[in-house]
Amino acid sequence: QIQLVESGGGLVQPGGSLNLSCAASGFAFNRYPMFWYRQAPGKERDLIAAITSDGSSTTYEDPVKGRFTMSRDNVKNTVYLQMNRLEAEDTAVYYCNVHYFRKNYWGQGTQVTVSS
Question: What are the backbone dihedrals phi and psi of residue 31, each rounded to the nearest 5 degrees, phi first?
Fold first, then answer.
């Protein structure tokens, strides 16, 4: 069974940083691209970052570009999202995602709240 478990969220002041982790199991982690999504209250769940299976390339959506960095450790089967210069608009539940045999798998999400 595929499991994705996010952690590392919390309350942070504007301008602060957080590092999210997603521990993956149940599939060949090193063969699959991984994704981070987020969902703010009342909003759709949006893709914000993606990484290739070997971690050699990443892509970011405009709202987080230059502030967030996605990485992965294929020995630990873990994907990370380093978030810097956080803004109030970054407040959301952050989800790890993998596309596996035409299905989307999600973690439980981790709450990030940016507030002064």
Answer: -105, 0
